[in-house]
């Protein structure tokens, strides 16, 4: 059934935003994507992994080949202890057969640019430097006011504005604030040809005082992130002091880690990682949240971006198949809640495992990790094999 929806405002041009805009364009809906950051600012951010469940949404949009060309396949994850001994691995190389796609690593700026360009090509009005600061509902429409003073009206407004969502604060003011996971993140891109990393694999090191992840990208670049729990250390304003604090936290860990940090021209972040275990309501009136705005998840399950992609397809499908936006929003929330909350819980659990361990705890962890990885792989399979379908009707 064709939705009566004519105009939609999408707040946020990250991952969920341009993706839901593309699905709405399929329905002939007039869509504006409002992104707060300017074009020049869009290079911010490091990199992320797109899992099979998210890649299938991009394939549905005909973007599979383009994303593959702009990213690098991840063969798997290898885990190391602070002495550099491999204590376990998760192999992704058979995932294309098993789940229809293999995880890829992509620079965040590259993903954003690709999605926004694809949404614009499909007729969405994609605007940068368009920060939404206020909302109002009038009979039959919702109005967003931009920082510039401009006001835009539509039948529905979709809040895709991330973990610190302004739309959530405005439309659902009783929502709990996101919770600090206890982890901070810093990352970067380095050329470090001597690092003992296998191309295509991600090396995860449980360091003595901090966690370090490094993906060996094609072409010899190392894409890395560092997690530790000391919020104040990460909030050091001076980048060189921050670098010194990271180097100090990895003192005594395999020496290539320090080499990679030293070889990084610009440190990215810091990001204090927050999540939302459960949001009592995802929608109010003509406004609905999706992606991190509704269910932010820490990066430790590698699923936030893929869930945002899944949400975009499911919400557009519900709007297609349901005459009333409010009913569509309720169906969307009902269909998605259990799945996304399970991922948020698992991600928090994974992140807790990155906390530095004393010698005895580290001894146990090294021995128990293969078992934890087997259990983790079962949870991961449930996330990866999930399929959201565009074709069948929502009801
Ligand atoms: C360090 C780090 C590493 C991560 N790694 C991974 C990973 O490997 N795999 C994975 O799946 N997930 C990862 N994630 C999580 C993932 O980034 C998010 O889950 C995902 O980006 C959510 O997409 P989204 O579209 O909902 O929000 P976002 O991508 O956050 O996009 C929100 C957009 O809204 C814009 N915006 C905000 N406020 C306004 C406003 N008032 N008006 C207009 N625009 C606004 C923002 O500028 C932003 O562009 C990571 C997160 C972090 C912090």
Automatic annotation (TrEMBL):
The FAD-binding domain, residue ranges: 8-347
Keywords: Monooxygenase, Oxidoreductase
Oxidoreductase recorded as keyword: yes
GO MF: FAD binding; monooxygenase activity
Taxonomic superkingdom: Bacteria
Record-given protein name: NAD(P)/FAD-dependent oxidoreductase
Lineage: Bacteria, Pseudomonadati, Myxococcota, Polyangia, Nannocystales
Gene source species: Nannocystis pusilla
Keyword Oxidoreductase included in the entry's annotation: yes
Pfam family for this entry, one: FAD_binding_3
